[in-house]
Amino acid sequence: MRHHPGLSTSWHEGFAARYDEWAAGMTEDVPFYVALAREADGPLVELAVGSGRVAIPVALATGRTVIGIDSSPAMLEQARERTAEAEVELDLREADMRELALDEPAALIYCPARALLHLPTWSDRRRTFERVARSLRPSGRFAWNAFAFDHAIAARLDGLHDDEPVPHTLRYAVGDNRVDITLDSGGTSSLWWATKNEWLGLLDVAGFELEALYGGFDREPFTEDSREYVFVARLR
Ligand SMILES: C[S@@+](CC[C@H](N)C(=O)[O-])C[C@H]1O[C@@H](n2cnc3c(N)ncnc32)[C@H](O)[C@@H]1O
Prior knowledge:
By secondary structure, this protein is of the alpha/beta class. It has one domain (13-147, 194-235): Rossmann fold, CATH 3.40.50. Strand 2, helix 5 (73-86) and strand 3 (90-94) form a beta-alpha-beta unit. It has helices at 13-16, 19-22, 29-39, 55-62, 73-86, 122-134, 151-157, 196-206; strands spanning 44-47, 66-70, 90-94, 106-111, 136-147, 161-162, 168-173, 178-183, 188-192, 208-214, 228-235. The radius of gyration is 17 Å and the shape is globular. S-adenosylmethionine is lined by residues 9, 11, 23, 48-50, 53-54, 69-72, 75, 96-98, 112-113, 115, 118-119.
């Protein structure tokens, strides 16, 4: 894997081999991101595009090329294979989202599958949000989703092995607000959870205003009981 100087990454290439099996049940986010892409008048960018699970339906639905940024050569290789099968075009770029830079400002930048949680620190996220802000057209939108950390779930699952969807063990490092997903077949993916106020703070410092915070992909209102943050933001 190409090393991105000065930037540590939490994504283990061992995870790439099983990612499609891991994400097989994840489908409800696709129409949400497709709808935002249809509304966007200009370039579309997916951060952490992975195997193209969302970018391919977005490209098919809009008839437009999606720029897909990812730091993992193994995931990008899968995206290349899938785009060839789907006969659709993606502009795939091996890069770290913390170093996002585009030639032309985008109308929509989105980051599905909680992938912003792979960024270990608040300053990694601030840097990413600032890069996104600089890469958008004045009317451009930034959308992403992330889980709301649930201590009851963490207490129940910490240290447990599960065979579904791919054999793995979860570990919660509460002091570091981190979840480690370690596959039996090798490879750990780490996610650093964030609170609602951290997300709102990132929008604030990077010059965004909140357009909507939903509690799910059907645009249901966010409530105290919601377990997913689905954010849509605009430049201020
Ligand atoms: C959970 S997958 C999401 C893939 C895809 N967006 C989807 O919705 O299925 C997370 C992806 O984030 C990528 N990733 C992790 N850290 C990254 C970073 N700093 N910059 C770019 N990509 C990163 C990984 O390589 C992996 O492909």
